Amino acid sequence: MTFDIDAIRAQFPALSQTVDDLTPVFFDNPAGTQVPSRVISAVTEYFTRMNANSGGVFPTSERSDSMVRSVRAKVARFLNAPRSDEIVFGANMTTLNFALSRALATTFSPGDEIVLTRMDHDANVAPWLRVAAERGMTVKWVDIHEADCTLDMDTLEAALSTRTRVVATVHASNAVGTINPVGRIAEMAHAAGALHIVDAVQSAPHILIDVQGIGCDFLLCSAYKFFGPHVGIMWGRYDLLESLPAYKVRPSKDKPPYRWETGTPAFELIAGVGAAVDYIEFAGGMAAIGAYERELTAHLIGMLLGFPEIHIAGIVDPARLNERVPTVVFTHDRFTAEQVARQLAHQGIYVWDGNYYAVEIMNRLGHAEHGMVRVGLAHYNTHAEIDRLEAALRQL
């Protein structure tokens, strides 16, 4: 089946705009994707047809509640969750993870251990460091192989003990793009008697997520990374969502998922989440998206390797592209990451620079001061845009 890139791009109004007489190239996707028209329409429809708080006995409130139930079911299918009431909506992944870590902290004791990785975004590091400091716990770190920026599974195995309570890992790195073997990690964590928490923010736009297949205990992601609005999503095992001491106001429902959703949710944005999931089905699903993105990634990496002054961190072997998402980072011998990003921006090419909150891996790779340039592809990008990037890099 041919991936109809023109039909895909036609779904995204932002892709046809001009800025300073240039058509933008959106390579900033790991920080947030563009949204298709159906997402914009869903948000607008919420405000025009069902703008009311939850729990009322009148039509607009009933429509709003019905919409939320429908979107929970869609997200449950998207993540292959056993039941829709295991889907929690929140402001963002970071806020949800702080709430989760705070609840779990009440079950920990001094001397217990938390295992973190040098690859994770700080949203899956800082909450656990805070818990460890407050509860007198020990933090153990899982290292990476610097040559290809894959997780060092030997250091993970060595970090586990009978005192391990949480193993927190990223599914796909927001910096170097590595896809981690989360199913194997879940097995290792459970063998040690620990819970496994997965940050799937960067994997959700690119690969099929199956929480039952992974076998983790909690998985978090963000809809604005998979073509939706700014909503955080947390899946958790129902027994844990039910039993953990969630922090809530007294009148709110004390059952999952509501006991985890503090305050009034952004219903209009939740409507957009449902439309984003519908869009992914329209685009052909993750298999079609992934196949096209691997073609783009091979083109991008091959092009960058042609510049002797550019140095990529991460997997570059064309035979191993299924082990990474299409997020590629590099340094330049003559320019800082910010200088490269600014010069590309002048030519309408939007890339990211710095550490992207992936503090640990930037420290580990020796790029704490300036960070790296990040080119993050999405399935609406094109080979022509990569050619445009190449031409711009040659003009630096």
In short:
The protein contains 14 helices and 15 strands. It is of the alpha/beta class and 396 residues long.
Which strand-content bin applies to the residues?
Answer: 15-25%
- Total number of strands: 15
Read across the widest sheet, the strand sequence of neighbours is: 2-10-9-8-7-3-4
The helix/strand class is alpha/beta
Low-confidence stretches: none
Mean pLDDT comes to 98
Shape: globular
Question: How would you sum up this structure, described in words?
Answer:
This protein is an alpha/beta fold and 396 residues long. 39% of the residues lie in helices and 16% in strands. It contains 14 helices and 15 strands. Strands 2-10-9-8-7-3-4 form a 7-stranded mixed beta sheet, with helices on both faces. The protein has a 4-stranded antiparallel beta sheet with strand order 11-12-15-14, with helices on one face. The protein has a two-stranded parallel sheet with strand order 1-13. It is globular, with a radius of gyration of 21 Å.
Any descriptors?
396 residues; alpha/beta; Aspartate Aminotransferase, domain 1; Aspartate Aminotransferase, domain 2; 2 domains; seven-stranded mixed β-sheet; four-stranded antiparallel β-sheet; globular
List the helices and strands and how they pair.
Layout: H1 5-9, E1 25-26, H2 37-49, H3 59-79, E2 87-90, H4 93-105, E3 113-117, H5 126-135, E4 138-142, E5 144-145, E6 150-151, H6 153-159, E7 164-170, H7 182-191, E8 195-199, H8 211-214, E9 218-222, E10 232-236, H9 238-243, H10 267-282, H11 285-305, E11 310-313, E12 327-332, H12 337-346, E13 349-350, E14 352-354, H13 359-365, E15 372-376, H14 383-394
Parallel strand pairs: 1-13, 3-4, 3-7, 7-8, 8-9
Antiparallel strand pairs: 2-10, 5-6, 9-10, 11-12, 12-15, 14-15
Helix pairs in contact: 2-10, 3-10, 4-5, 11-14
